[in-house]
From TrEMBL:
Coiled-coil zones: none
Highest taxon in the source lineage: Archaea
One Pfam family cited in the UniProt record for this chain: Gar1
SUPFAM superfamilies with a match to the protein in the record: Translation proteins (SSF50447)
Protein name per its UniProtKB record: Gar1/Naf1 family protein
Gene3D superfamilies, per database record: Probable tRNA pseudouridine synthase domain
Organism, as annotated: Candidatus Methanocrinis alkalitolerans
InterPro entries: Gar1/Naf1_Cbf5-bd_sf, H/ACA_rnp_Gar1/Naf1, Transl_B-barrel_sf
Amino acid sequence: MKRLGTTHHFVQKKLIVRGEPSTGERKEEIPKINSVVVDQKKAGIGRVFDVFGPADRPYIIVKPYRNVDASVYLGKKLYFEERGFGGRNRKD
């Protein structure tokens, strides 16, 4: 589980997350499209839909799963796991 960033906006049923800043000795990894997004308790929230902005601190769009109330995650830190497509445990 790797830190994704902090959720800043909820727009058109998608979460906008600001990525963690990269520092000299700690370089944050940019998530791949379709990476699984989870909260600190590892509960599935959705998947990475798109990544844009500067490489050192990108914005990440997260498409929540249908049964998730994504608005409760505003201002919260989220994490991601890069799993294969076979590792899904929820429907998009």
